[in-house]
Specification:
Keywords: Membrane, Transmembrane, Transmembrane helix. The protein is an all-alpha fold. It is built from 11 helices and no strands. The protein is globular, with a radius of gyration of 20 Å.
Length: about 260
């Protein structure tokens, strides 16, 4: 885990975009399939949302494997959806998923501790009455802190699943290596996330200024969100590849994507 310059985060984003451009339809189909499966599982009373949290690493491995296949010049097929659900990796990935579940529970606890329920109810009442909800500075600061902590936890875990699946690391060891790899490359991830958000915000702003605030803009922004989620997934694969090396598996055919700078 060598020290990387901060600009590497921008390179990850560009190289992730190169992967996405190679097979955008396949990756988009993969994303929607994951969303539909997650919605179906979440519909199970009580346990559904908990199960989805535990399965996050298994879902994420489908995108990681798809990126590897694209880099090797292979076609991404629907079977890649099952990547993280095959034995013996599935059990280990579920153990990592318990950490994701813990992050989610911690977020709920922070919401209860930092957010005043009366303030939430008052904002909901103002919104129902058609008024502009009055948001205090402390409320916004609390929301921002919770979102940032949740994002930091999720990013810190981003390599745990691939390390377990590709390098056969035990879940605890994979979590340890993922956390410290992200911590050591914190400025790289910061640049990547800032660039990712800045591009998304700029495109959204241009769409709003050019097309106004009608339903078409809302639909386009929703599609944009999906595309940028995929872009971030591809950039995470590039980051894994640079920090831990290219995973084994999958014979490369012609037409692969070069990730060299």
């Amino acid at each position: 885990m060598n020290n990387l310059p901060a600009i590497t985060g921008w390179h990850w984003l560009k190289q992730g975009a190169a992967l996405f451009r190679k097979q955008p339809a396949a990756l988009t189909t993969l994303l929607f399939a994951n969303i539909l499966i997650s919605i179906g599982i979440s519909a199970v009373p009580l346990l559904g949302p908990l199960i989805v949290s535990v399965l996050i690493p298994s879902f994420s491995m489908a995108f990681m494997q798809a990126c590897l296949m694209i880099e090797n010049g292979e076609r991404v097929t629907p079977g890649v959806l099952l990547t993280g659900f095959r034995k013996p990796a599935f059990g280990a990935l579920c153990k990592i998923g318990l950490v994701y579940l813990g992050i989610g529970i911690l977020q709920l606890v922070l919401v209860r501790l930092l957010i005043d329920p009366d303030a939430m109810q008052e904002m909901a009442r103002q919104s129902r009455e058609g008024g502009q909800p009055q948001v205090s500075g402390s409320f916004m600061l609390s929301i921002f802190a919770i979102v940032m902590l949740n994002m930091a936890g999720m990013v810190a875990m981003c390599f745990a699943g691939p390390l377990t699946y590709w390098q056969k690391m035990p879940p605890a060891k994979a979590t340890f290596y993922s956390f410290f790899a992200v911590l050591r490359s914190a400025r790289v991830f910061l640049v990547m996330l800032m660039a990712w958000f800045a591009i998304f915000f700029a495109i959204t702003l241009v769409l709003s200024l050019v097309l106004g605030g009608d339903n078409l803009v809302r639909v386009l922004i929703m599609w944009l969100i999906f595309l940028f989620v995929l872009l971030l997934q591809c950039a995470m694969y590039v980051g894994y590849r640079q920090i831990f090396g290219k995973p084994d598996g999958g014979g490369g055919g012609g037409g692969g994507v070069s990730l060299a700078k």
